[in-house]
Amino acid sequence: MPDGKLTAPDCTLICSCRDTNPLDEEALERAFPGRVVRRFRDLCRTERQAFTAELERGRRLLVACTQEAPLFLELAEPAGDSVEVRFANIREKAGWSDEGARSGPKMAALLTDAWASPEPPGAVELRSEGRTAIIGDDDDERALEAAGMLCDVQPVTVYLSGAVGRSEEALTAPTPPRLRRFPIFRLGVIRLEGYLGRFRITSERVEVGRPDSRAALAFEPAGVAGPFEADIVVDVRSGGGALVSAAEKRDGYLRADPGDPARVMRAIWDARGLVGEFEKPRYAEIDPVLCAHSRNGVTGCTRCLDACPTGAITHSPGAGSNAAHLDPYLCAGCGTCAGICPTGAASYNLPPDARLIERARTALETHRRAGGEHPVLLVHDTDWGEQCIDLMARHGPGLPANVVPISVNSVGQCGLDFLLAAQAYGTLGCVVIAPPERMVELEPLSETIEIAEAISTGLGYTGGEHRLLLEADPLVIAEELRTFCRPGEAPLATRPAERFLPAGGKRDRLSLALSALHRHAPKPVDSLELPDGAPFGQVVLDSDRCTLCLACTSACPAGALQDDPERPRLGFQERSCVQCGLCVRTCPEQALALAPRIDFRESARSVRTLKDEEPFHCLRCAKPFGTRSTIERVVERMSGHAIFGDPGALERLRMCADCRVADMAEHVAEPFAGGPRPRTRTTGDYLKAREQGRDDPDE
Q1: What pLDDT is recorded for position 675?
Q2: pLDDT at 6 over 60
Q3: Residue 193: exposed, middle, or buried by beta-carbon count in 10 A (0-12, 13-18, 19+)?
Q4: Phi, psi of 378 (to 5 degrees)
C-alpha cells in the first residue's frame, strides 16, 4: 500500500477450508456492499485456478488464508509487480472456534484490517566483519572449545573472566590449546557496551595467556589495557547474569549457559550468520520540540528513560539539548517509550501510533456494520501472539466471536490514546496479551491501563475493562477471554460508537477520545482524580510563596503555564499540562505542586489566572517593573545588609534599572563604596572570648 491509506482490495477470496471454517455470507455482504467477495471451499488445491485467473486480471487481491500464503505467492511470481497480494487469517482467528458460526462480523473486521498493513519504517544499517569475542569462565574449557569451532570461519578472541591476579595455585585453569589460533585474555570485572558491529569490552585489569603454559593455561600482565572491540559477542559464562540490559534484545549479543551444549551450539551457529551488512527498522523517534525531559539544566519527565529496557534512551546534560536522545542502534522496538510519553514526543513507526488507532476504528466500524455487537479488542504481537491464537484454535475452544484481534509489532506501544480511542469507538475493552517473561518490561503499560480504567470507571462505564494478560498457556488465555466483558444489556446501552478520525498529535487524539467518552458517559462528572503518573492534572500554587518571577513559564514545555506581557500575571491552561514536574523543580520559592486529575469542562481549555498582582512603579519615573510583593520583599531582606546601610540605597531598590544608575550618579560620590569594614578577628580574639564565656568576640 504505497500511499499508506486504508484502501480496499479489488477482489477478496475467502475459503471455508473444506467446510471447517463457517462463512457468514450475509454478514460479509452487510460489511462490504458492492465489493467483489468470492467464496470457495478448497481454494489452495482444487480451486486454485480461480486465484490464477484473478492474477491474470491484474487485480489487487486479498486472500483469506495465511497457512498457504507461500503457495499463493509462488503462483503470483510470474505476474511480478502487476498484482498485489495480501493475506488475512479468518480461520484460526474466527472460524476455528466454538463460536465460529457467529464470527461473521469478526471475519469482516479481520479482512478490513488485513489490507491495512503498516508501511515499512526507515532503517539504520549495521555492519559486521565477524570479529567475535567469546567470553567464558577462567576455570572452564568450554569457551576455548567454542572458539575452536568458530575460529576457522571468522576472527575470534577469547576473554576469560574471573579474579584477576589471584595465585595460579588457586585457579583450576583450562588446558592450553595445542595450536594458538586465537588470542586468549583474562579480565577482571568485564564491562560491555554497544551493539552488532560496535561492541566495546573494558576491564580494570587485563592479563594475556602465556606462551609457555604447560599443563594449565597461565597468564601474565598484558601490554595493552583495552578497550577491546568486537562485532559479535558470544557469552558462555556459567553465571553472573548478562553483561548488557535486555540481553535477548541486543543485536549481536548471544548468551548461552555452558552447561547446555545445544544452546552453545545454537549461539555459535547464530554467530556465523551475523557477518555482513544488515538493516534494522528505525522503530521509534523522539521529537525534541515536544520532549518534556529537561529545561535549563533541570530534569522533568523521565518516563521513557526509566522504562527503556535496552538503555537506548539517554540524556547528556552537556549535550546542549533539552530532549532525551534515542539511539536507533540500541532500540529493540518494544514501543514502551511511545506508549507512556505524555506529550507524544516519542513516537512509534511500526505502525505509527495514529495509524494503529485508525486500524482499530476501521475494524470496529466494519464489525458493527456487519451486525456484530459488544466487540473486545485483543491486542497481540506478530510472533508470540500469533502462535498463541493458533494453538487456541487448534487445541482449544478458539477465540470468542466478539473478540477482534489486532496484531502489532510490539504490544508495548499501546498508549492511553489508543485505549481510550478504542473505547470511544465502541469496544467493551482492550485485552493485551503477552508472555509472563515480559512482566517487568510491560509495567509502564500496566500503569497506563490503570489510568484508563480510572477514567472509564469514573465516568460510570461498567461491564468492560482494559486488561494486560500475562499468561503462557493459550488455553488459560482462551478461558480468561470467555469470562471477560460479558455484562448485561443495561450497561451497554450507553456505549459510544464514535467515528472521529485520529487527527493531530497524541494530545489531540486524547482530547478527541476523552470528549467522546464524556459525551456518552453514564456519569458525566466535571472532573476526576487520577493516579500518580497520569499525564493530566493541574498545578497548585501557593500564592504566599509565589513572587511571580515567572521562571516556571519558561520551563513549561507544553505551554500550560503562561505569562502576560502587559502585567505581572501567571496563567494556567489545564488541558495542556502533562504533569512533567519541570515547573515544580524550577520554582525557586517551591510554590508549585502537581495534582493529577482530568477536567472535562470547557474552562480547562482556556487560560485561568493563578496569581495576578499590580506592577510596582518606579519611584523616579513611574515606569512599571516587577511586582509590589517582590520589590518589598527584596527591600525587607536587604535592609540589614552593610551595602544598603544608607537609606538612599534602599530607596534605589524601588527604582527601575535606568533610574537606579541615574540616582547613583547624582547622589553617590563613590558609587561602588560599601559601608565601614568590620574589624578583622584573630584566633586570639576567639580564645579570649571563650575564656570570658562569650560566643562572639565583638560582644
Answers
A1: 63
A2: no
A3: middle
A4: -110, 110
Helices marked H in 427-525: 443-458, 474-482, 489-492, 506-519
Q: Residue holding cell 539511539?
A: 327
| pLDDT tens digits, one per residue of 187-211 | 999 999 999 999 999 998 899 999 9
Check residue 78 and report its DSSP letter: G
Look at residue 132 and give its three-state secondary structure: strand
Residue 370 grid coordinates:
456487519
User: Would you state the pLDDT for residue 119?
Assistant: 74
pLDDT in tens, 226-256: 799 999 999 999 888 899 999 999 999 999 9
Query: From start to end of 463-572, where are the E strands?
Result: 467-470, 527-529, 537-541, 561-563, 569-572
* Residue 240 CB neighbours (<10 A): 11
Helices and strands in the chain, H and E counts? 21, 34
Task: Write the pLDDT tens digit of every residue in 77-126.
Answer: 998 888 999 999 999 999 999 999 999 999 999 999 998 866 778 899 99
312 or 640, which is more confident: 312
* CB neighbourhood size of 573 (10 A): 18
147 in Cβ contact with 351 (< 8 Å): no
CB atoms under 10 Å from CB of 396, counted, come to: 18
Dihedrals phi, psi of 515, to nearest 5 degrees: -65, -40
Cα distance between residue 399 and residue 406, in whole Å? 13
- Set of cell numbers at residue 605: 481549555
Distance between CA atoms of residues 225 and 207, nearest Å: 9
The DSSP code sequence of 204-273 is: S-EEEE-TT--SS--EEE-S----EEESEEEE--SSS--SSTTGGGSTTEEE--TT-HHHHHHHHHHHHT
What is the rounded CA–CA span in Å between residue 167 and residue 123? Answer: 50
Exposed, middle or buried, 139 (CB in 10 Å: 0-12/13-18/19+)? Answer: middle
* CA within 13 Å, CB half, 29: 4
Q: Which of 231, 239, 236, 233 is nearest to 198 (CA)?
A: 231
Length of the chain (residues): 699
DSSP 354: H
Q: What is the pLDDT of residue 635?
A: 87
Residue in this structure with the C-alpha cell 500464503, named with its chain if needed: 69
Whose cell is 471447517? That residue is 20
Q: φ, ψ for residue 598 (rounded to 5)?
A: -130, 130
In order of their start, the domains of the chain are: 11-114 (3.40.50), 126-279 (3.50.50), 282-348 (3.30.70.20), 353-529 (no CATH), 537-612 (3.30.70.3270)
Q: For the chain, what percent of residues have pLDDT higher than 70? A: 94
Element housing 624 (H / E): strand 624-627
430-434 β-sheet, strand order: 403-408, 376-381, 430-434, 467-470
Which range (81-85, 354-358, 379-383, 388-392) has the least confidence? 81-85
Between CA 654 and CA 210 the distance in angstroms is: 80
Closest CA to 385 of 418, 443, 434: 434
Could you give the angle at the alpha carbon of 280 between the alpha carbons of 274 and 284, nearest 5°? Answer: 145
- C-beta of residue 531 within 8 angstroms of C-beta of residue 451: yes
pLDDT at 4: 41
In the block, which residue shows the cell 568450554?
142
* Owner of C-alpha cell 545445544: 262
